[in-house]
Amino acid sequence: MSCECKGPTPRWSTLASKPASSVIRDLLKLAARPEVISFAGGLPSPEGFPVEAVAKACQEVLATQGKQALQYSMVEGEMILREQIAKRETMKGIPTTADQVYIVSGSQQALDLLARVFLDPGDKVLVESPTYMGALQAFDLVGPRYVELNCDEKGLNPAAFGEECRNAKFAYVMPTAANPTGLTIDEDRRALLAQKAREYDMWLVEDDPYGELWYEVEPPKSLRYWAPERTIRLGTLSKILAPGFRLGYVIAPADVLDKFASMKQAIDLCTAAFTQRVAGQTFSDDVLVEHLPNVRARYAKHAHAMLDALAEFMPEGVTWTNPIGGMFIWVTLPEHMNATTLMQDVLAQNVAYVPGEPFYANKPEVNHFRLSFVTVDPEVIREGVRRLASVIKAHI
Prior knowledge:
By secondary structure, the chain is an alpha/beta fold. It has helices spanning about 25-30, 50-70, 80-90, 105-120, 135-140, 185-200, 255-270, 275-285, 285-315, 340-350, 380-395; strands at about 35-40, 100-105, 125-130, 145-150, 150, 155, 170-175, 205, 230-235, 250, 320, 330, 350, 355, 370. It has two domains: about 25-40 and about 290-395, Aspartate Aminotransferase, domain 1 (Alpha-Beta Complex), CATH 3.90.1150.10; about 70-285, 3-Layer(aba) Sandwich (Aspartate Aminotransferase, domain 2), CATH 3.40.640.10. Helix 5 links the parallel strand 3 (about 125-130) and strand 4. Helix 2 packs across helix 8 (about 275-285) and helix 4 (about 105-120) packs parallel to helix 5 (about 135-140). The longest helix has 27 residues, at about 285-315.
């Protein structure tokens, strides 16, 4: 006869003791059902993964660099990949050397390192309103004090910055095809943002996961072009190659990179050498020359399908952003509506989105939601938007 003995309750840390569940998390679990047309995910389209090219690169790396690829890496990252990233940055108009590039285990690790290196509890951090929820989750582990920066229909507006920006450790911004809004700030605003960073003596953290995913018009240059001495640029291979590599990178001045390296070594020693070398080989084979235009064309087709469907079905009083790239559209409902409670009825029609609440650092605005379109076929997008619009019409 066996019995189950209940062990003692673990003595959780303060951080681990925080509530683990939320209304939104529970809703998104329901959204994962196979019958649901889900506009909730933030995943790149698997149809765009260069599987054959990666398989070829794996074979090449194992055949020619096998012993090195299966060994530990340097904390700074494998030189072949750093060189390839520096080359791409230079081609985009911002001269970059491999020594200015450090590899991390996905750009989410870069956000974690950023918080550990720069922040103490209560430090001031500037964030867009709304902003990327993954960044807030990483920063929340330290417990900063957020100041939300005004955005309009053109994205972040540095002209509205005031004394509330002074003494901030950094401003976290996503200037190109932002998550969640899809907005891109123009060249004039980027130049002004650099000017404001100098005026208020703060760092700029430029998170750029979607900068290569433009549709027809290439976005303006990185913030490093206007403020190289105070910009920390975060990038990822998850959107241009595949998220399964778990590879991101940081480009920053040497003293910042040294601090990142010291902190990273204590966390995970190094990023996987094998995936770095395979990614570097893929870059060396010029796979992206053909691959990226195909991904851009696919994403543009899906974006236009969703924008057309929104224009066809949405009732008066509902507005949305018009992205020039990336994976997201931000929808605004009339002020009296709540996108979180509305999702219950939307899910009943087997459609899902992400409510806007978790994208706000301080006081959430509840009449917004995010739509992701790249993993849904265009004809299915139209049907999903039609169902979604029918629910919104009923509530309006």
